[in-house]
Each structure stands twice: as C-alpha cells, then as structure tokens.
Write a structure and sequence with these properties.
The protein has about 170 residues and is an alpha/beta fold. The chain has a single domain, classed as 3-Layer(aba) Sandwich (Glutaredoxin). The chain has seven helices and nine strands, in the order αβαβααβββββαββαα. The strands form three sheets. The protein has a five-stranded mixed beta sheet with strand order 1-3-2-8-9. A two-stranded antiparallel sheet has the order 4-5. β6 and β7 (about 105) form a beta hairpin. The N and C termini lie far apart (about 45 Å).
Length: about 170
C-alpha cells in the first residue's frame, strides 16, 4: 500500500508539473464561451497545415515554457486553421469556408487578418471580443514574449510599442 501511495503521489507530481508544458488551445467557439463567463484577452494563432513557418512557430515558440505559461495564465488561446471547413458563428454572423482557386480560405480568418491571408499570423482580441491587432509572421520566443506582455494587461493602451519594447525585461 505504501508503495502504491508513493508512486501515485509521484505520478501526480509529474502530471501537475507537465500541465504547463503545452498551450491550452481552444476552438474559437470555446474561447468565446469561456470569455462570457470569465473575460480574458483572446490570442488566435491563424495557421494552415501546409505552412512551414507555422510548424516552426509551434515547435520553437509555442512550446517554450515561458511562452506557454504566459499564454495559459493570461489569454484564451485559439488555433484557427485559415482554411477551416466548418462554419463558425460569431456575433450573430456565420463565417464559412470560401472556395478560391485550388484551396480556399475561411471567412473568419480573412476578417481577422483584414483580408491579408498570410500565415502564421497572431490575432489579439480584448475581453470584449473586439479585434485589437493582428501580427503577421513567425516570431522567435524572445520577441513573442514582448508581444504577449504588450497585449496581456492592456499595455497597448498606455504605451507606444517602441517605448514598451525598449523598456521590457525578459524572463529568459
């Protein structure tokens, strides 16, 4: 029995310590629903399956422990496929997959990216589910840490980006 308890406690400790090893990705609808109960900013990673830079950002940036903890503690995180086939209902509007040439795009991704479909892209929405800004491209963990800090406590309201970036103290 003592052996069982020791191993159970050890296993729970391991599971608890790895709970922050990955970003808690949600669907767009899940994030909006959770935001109604407990408002937080929303981070949306807009990607595609064929995008090499998207995979690199997943591997190098979104897997970093500091980035994972910052996102999980301060945002609802959404993975949105820019070529998603499922309809998404948001603010009374149904966003659909739009055929375009050989592939196509999802109307919500196009709306969030202001029609500039470039992957990866990170979109930030405030607690009121209003678009703050979209930031195109791959970002290394050091730069992404600054970007997250700029948006997580509404620092964008009181600081200019350049001033915030120049005075930021990294956790790396």
């Amino acid at each position: 029995m003592k052996y069982f308890l020791t191993h159970t406690v050890f296993l729970l400790a391991i599971l608890t310590s790895t709970a922050q090893d990955k970003v808690n990705w949600l669907s767009f609808e899940e994030a909006i629903s959770l935001n109604k109960e407990n408002p937080k900013p929303i981070l949306i990673d807009v990607y595609t399956d064929w995008c090499g830079w998207c995979k690199k950002m997943d591997r190098d940036t979104y897997s970093n422990k500091t980035i994972v903890k910052t996102i999980n503690d301060n945002f609802y995180a959404v993975k949105l496929d820019g070529e998603e086939k499922q309809d998404i209902l948001f603010n009374g509007q149904t966003f659909k997959f739009q055929e375009n040439g050989r592939k196509g795009y999802h109307q919500l991704a196009a709306a969030l990216l202001n029609g500039k479909l470039s992957y990866p892209a990170t979109v930030f929405m405030n607690k009121k589910e209003e678009l703050i800004q979209n930031i195109p491209g791959y970002h290394q963990k050091e730069k992404f840490e600054v970007i997250l800090a700029f948006f997580m406590n509404e620092n964008y309201r009181t600081y200019k980006w350049q001033d915030f970036q120049n005075n930021f103290k990294s956790n790396f």
